[in-house]
Amino acid sequence: MVDTIRLIIKGLKIDSNRCEKLTWTDYPGRDSMKCKYNACICKFITGDKEAHGSTFKVEGGLYKIIGGPKYQFFHTVFPRVLNPRHNLNPYNKDQAKLALNKLYNSLCEDGIELELENSLLSRVDLFKNIYLNHPFESYTPLFETLRASRLKKLPHESSWYFNNTLRSIVIYDKKGQMKDTQNIEKSNTSIVRFEYRMKKRQKCKNDLPFDTFGELIDGWDSLPSIYHKLMTEFIFKSADKYSVKKCDAKSDLDELIWFHDNFSRRWFEKYLLVNGASKVMEKVGDIDLVHRELIDNSLSSYPMRQIKILNSYLLMNGEKSEYGASVREMYDEIRSELLKPVADYLDESEMIP
User: Fold this and answer.
1) Which of 269, 271, 300, 312 is most buried, taking the most CB atoms under 10 A from its CB?
2) How far is CA 5 from CA 1, 70, 73, 82, in A?
3) Paired strand residues for 128
């Protein structure tokens, strides 16, 4: 349920004798070893090894700490604390507590003291994995149709970002990402991940009933309902109000017209991608009928272009000819699965306590 976490650190002390992972930026020139007092990082660094500068960094295996004299930040990809191989599976509450203890132990081994549970939340990413009925790419028209309230949509390769300065909603192919970046094939079915990212302290404070990391752990069991509320407010309300809701597909012609009206580019290819070229031909029986519908409903100035695309799809082998769900059916599937209880918590056999 929780992926990336960033904290504003409370009570930081770093033992420079023990923390081999500590690096810092010296002041320039002759001032490199001079202390700037309150404007120097030395005020929270103990030990015989002096460290004076404006910024510092500690790259731990399970965490990263960066900052300067005024603010210091703790970063962790929380699912990787108990399973360093990947961040696919969320934790239940007991696992979240184990991960917190493991972070404390790791910090202690590195000579770092901080009030981890009392540190303030300044970024929290909530997520849900959906195991799809069809290959991920067949849902492209649905994801291209979705809108998010008060967020700008920014497509990127096979991902969709809904962004502003305070929050992001990200939809992406989790199975494909794990295979491409980590060479891990975890599931036989396609997986789409919906992430809700609170990117700043202000947004964490507004969207969550917790201020600190410790409060987040204590309230862990309430996170699914918080996530459902946020996704409903920013994704599903817009989808129900606008284009996805209108795609009832009462007839094949209605759906064809819907794709034409909702996609300015490559609309016919998206229609075939969702419905499957072979299934379209099973319904209509004759390619000339498709040609006639395109002309009669003013769907194309050059209908032979669409016929050529249809023929090329019919010649292709593979899964693209096997799809058969409408955009509305896929939307109902996604919404239903997203609002169900989490079912893919981390298996104990994969945990490294």
Assistant:
1) 271
2) 11, 20, 10, 15
3) 194
Residue with the two structure tokens 């699914």:
224
Return the bridge partners of 120, or none. Answer: 8, 212
- What is the DSSP track for 98-139? HHHHHHHHHHHHTTEE--TTTSEEEEEEEEEEEE-SS-GGGG
> Which of 106, 56, 99 is closest to 78 using CA atoms?
99
Q: Which helix (H) or strand (E) holds 51?
A: none
Instruction: Identify whether the C-beta of residue 169 lies closer than 8 Å to the C-beta of residue 197.
Output: yes
Q: How far apart are CA 210 and CA 312, in angstroms?
A: 54
Structure tokens at 28: 């320039």
End-to-end CA distance of the chain: 19
Round to whole Å and give the CA distance between 149 and 162: 9
| Helix/strand/coil for 230 | helix
For strand 45-46 and strand 13-15, is the pairing parallel, antiparallel, or unpaired? parallel
d(CA 230, CA 6): 20
Task: Tell the residue number behind the tokens 């990117």, with chain if given.
Answer: 199
Instruction: Say whether pLDDT at 184 is over 90.
Output: no
Q: Is 199 helix (H, G, I), strand (E, B) or coil?
A: coil
Burial of 86 (0-12, 13-18, 19+ CB in 10 A): middle
The model's pLDDT over 295-313, given as tens digits with 9 standing for 90+, comes to 777 677 777 777 777 766 6
Q: What's 27's DSSP letter?
A: P
Taking only the tens place, the pLDDT of each residue in 2-24 is 999 999 999 999 999 999 999 99
DSSP annotation of 3: E
- CA 303/CA 290 separation, integer angstroms: 9
Rounded to 10°, the helix 267-275/303-315 angle is 30
CA 138 to mean position of chain CA atoms: 19
Beta-bridge mates of residue 6: 75, 123
What amino acid is encoded at 312 in this protein? S
Return d(Cα 141, Cα 139) in angstroms, integer: 6
| Closest CA relative to residue 268, chosen from 212, 220, 309, 207 | 309
